[in-house]
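Throughout this chapter, every protein is written as a compact record of paired, labelled lines. The reader may check this reading against the record printed directly beneath this paragraph:
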Amino acid sequence: MLALALGGFGIGLTEFVIAGLLPQVSRSLHVSTAAAGWLISGYALTVAVGAIAVTAATARLPQKPVLVGLVALFVVGNLLSALAPNYGVMLLGRVVAALCHGTFFGIGSLVARRLVPPERASRAVATMFAGLTVANVLGVPFGALVGERWGWRATFWAITAIGAVALAAIAVLVPAWAGGERGKGGRPDLRSQLHAFRSTQVWLTLTATALGYGGMFGAFSYIAYTFTEVTGFSTTDVAWLLVVYGTGLVVGNIAGGRGADHNRDATLLVSLAGLAITLVTFGLLASSRPASVILVFLLGVFGFATVPGMITRVTDAAGGVPLAASANVSASNVGNAVGAWLGGLVISAGFGYAAPLYVGAGIVGVGVGVMGVAARGEPRGEGS
């Protein structure tokens, strides 16, 4: 479990650390800020597409070797970024690293579940995702600190080293049987995995995932502007406020895993409803500094409390096929992109920097309705 969490930590660093390095990277590689921004959006788009494509391509392969190969791909991608002589190679490195992201968390969540009794399935997924949430807390300040002292390339060298350690840990510590190598009946082929998507419960869960993430990140994408332009914080305050948010992610991940193992659908409904209420309250109290600190923490708590339960729910509804778990990662990234786009639209329309909070609340509100419909059904497997 710790080996899987370490892999998640490295992948999470790759995703989040670039935000604090963009000014350095754009100056060093002589590109505009907009072009440098593609190092973030290009990564997200690759995750959304790659989660499905890579999982489908590896459908018949044993899962432990696939995990090892994915982390090796992660190491190669970050090595390319560390060595990049120009922007094109840097972007290529980001794309290569992103290809492993969705499938690692999709297959890794299934492997994690096999390591524990069924009644601890969601907590096992939460443990694996703990690396990702900790990376969110540490990613931006880590990248900024290392980048400021030794340059942005040093940050990617450090992430490459973390990836190498995670690669060795997974290869040595994750047992072969957890990867399904000794499973009965062979591994389902792509057609069998696609057949699982005929389940209404699968699509309802994926939709709820996209709406939950879309609402949270539709607001969070512009949270720095909310803090500085509405609340009145200085730009130097934003870094520690993001750490508060990241701490909320860690707490939400742990609480969501425990709650989902006790009553999964109730936990998901409460988490989504709590997220919607938090976003509305944040919009109303955005001008208050004390309230904003508390609410950005709760944004992280309720936003990530859905993750363990959503993954176990969609995989149970799909009969445990890896493609469903990876599709859940894709759904979250699609939600991120759409939510950020809608948040940008209301700002461009002149509604102010608190407006994305209300947009996010509306998106999550729809997600609560979808989850309510899903909860009336009965997905296959334990924990429902």
